[in-house]
Design a protein that fits this description.
signal, DUF2259_secreted, DUF2259 domain-containing protein, 5-stranded antiparallel sheet, alpha+beta
Length: 240
Amino acid sequence: MRLLFLFVVSLLAQSATSIAHAGDVAELEILGFTKDGSVFAFEEYGVQDGSGFPYANRYYIDTNDDSFLMGTPIRVRIDDENATLEAARLEARQKGEAIVKQAELTANKGITAGFNPVTELSADPHRMAVNPRPIFSPVDQPLEFRLDEIGMNNTEGCESQGEINGFRLLRIEAQDGGTTKLLQEDKSIPKSRGCPNGYRIGAVQTFSMDSLSFYAVLISVRQYGFEGPNFRWIAVTGRL
């Protein structure tokens, strides 16, 4: 009986530990591009750890210079633990209609050429190489991206949040013999990103008109959370 009791206590302790460190992993919804490819949009949504408040954030990015459109990002959080996630998402979607119509994004979603969720254990979190379109034999050069983390432990306000990192994102130019093109390199961490501990490449979305034209690299950001690691999403966009 004593052994059985100890076994049950151990299971309960493990269960309590897993619950205590559940964290908050935002779901990613790739919304798509405008019909000319000039804007890329995505949504992240979930239930905030600790408070239990539902949230939905929408990001609209100018692919010409990788900047947010005026009036975005759209951030909705309903400060009521009884509120539904669907209500938060609907409010964010309604606000987004004034930026770009949902119907246009849906009609021009593009191709998810690569996807690695934060639960993926076997893939390289800092490298993704894809055939940008589902054409076989491929008619496009491969798209390859690599991410390096940059230590930034001196970030103000993040002193108690563990190891703090920015990132550098490179594109590997296969047609030029593997030369690299710098897409982004943090010199400091924007306040909107909070206190990031680490990053991984989560997805590559491509968009074609007459030929392959635009891409977006979705990057998951790991942060120190109330109940465990939190994950949020950012994107780096560009033209080919």
